[in-house]
Write a structure and sequence with these properties.
It contains 9 helices and 12 strands. The strands form 4 sheets. Strands 5-4-3-8-9 form a 5-stranded mixed sheet. The chain is of the alpha+beta class. Helices cover about 35% and strands about 20% of the residues. It binds benzoic acid. Benzoic acid (BEZ) binds next to helix 4.
């Protein structure tokens, strides 16, 4: 397939078309062999044991959005601060109709003991229920299948730990966002909420959110909307910034 792609860069139209198709499929085959999921892929409907019982992922999600985030290990300091923060923000995720679920490569028993520590870290009553389930992946099966391992961080037996993965899944069960942090860098859950706000806004409206956007701020008109359509599409108005190139691509509109 690769030889054909090289041969067909000769300028012949029909062969060029064939070449493009082959190049596309070569890329897909290459990507399909890489660990991990691509944006737009239907998220695997895996089964797992969790602190709230056995789940089948799509049934767990139901009609909600979902966020699955992995952790290197139970009873570790950065993970404790992350799960503590995620637990404190759980009402913000539910307000956005996002179901939360965490994963760590330890047992249910460890997870149950660890959540008591996390609640204590949050200065909450030890009897409080933890607000979302944690998957027990002590055989690392799911971590491997979902491309979550961090080859640079190993446990005492030399086995790789899980990286800090974030998957946001839409109501159509497709992957909308993935983030991958190494074990040594804790995530910013305010940023994750901000991203969910952008994903949900842009799923409903043909807009894009600029750098550092916060909910309520102006948004951008995507470049594939022609000027004449933009005015009708955004009755609140479109402001176009003048630029040295005189190209009219930096277009803002109030958040719909
Ligand atoms: C932690 O969660 O503190 C951690 C875990 C693995 C490597 C480094 C830090």
């Amino acid at each position: 397939m690769i030889i054909l792609s090289v041969k067909t860069c000769s300028g012949l139209d029909d062969l060029n078309l064939l070449s493009s198709v082959c190049c596309y499929w070569s890329a897909r085959v290459f990507i399909a062999n890489m660990p991990g999921l691509l944006l737009g892929d239907v998220f695997p409907n895996f089964e797992a044991e969790t602190t709230n019982g056995k789940i089948k992922f799509h049934d767990f999600l139901g009609d909600s959005w979902g966020i699955l985030f992995s952790h290197p290990r139970d009873y570790t300091p950065v993970c404790t601060t992350e799960l503590g923060r995620a637990a404190k923000l759980s009402h913000e995720f539910s307000r956005r109709n996002v179901k939360m679920i965490a994963l760590s490569i330890d047992s249910l028993e460890d997870h149950r003991g660890w959540t008591k520590d996390i609640l204590a870290y949050n200065n909450e009553e030890s009897g409080c229920a933890f607000p979302f389930p944690i998957i027990a992946d002590n055989q690392r099966e799911l971590a491997v299948a979902l491309g979550m391992l961090d080859p640079d961080e190993k446990d005492k037996d030399g086995m790789p730990l899980t990286a800090r993965c974030v998957f946001v899944i839409g109501q159509d069960k497709k992957l909308k966002l993935s983030l991958l942090y190494p074990a040594t860098t804790g995530r910013n859950f305010d940023e994750i909420l901000r991203v969910v706000d952008s994903l949900q806004l842009t799923a409903k409206n043909r807009v894009a959110t600029p750098a550092d956007w916060q909910p309520g701020e102006r948004v951008m008109v995507p470049p594939n909307i022609p000027e004449e359509e933009a005015a009708a599409m955004f009755p609140a108005g479109v402001y176009t910034k003048e630029l040295p190139s005189e190209r009219k691509y930096l277009r803002y509109t109030p958040q719909p």
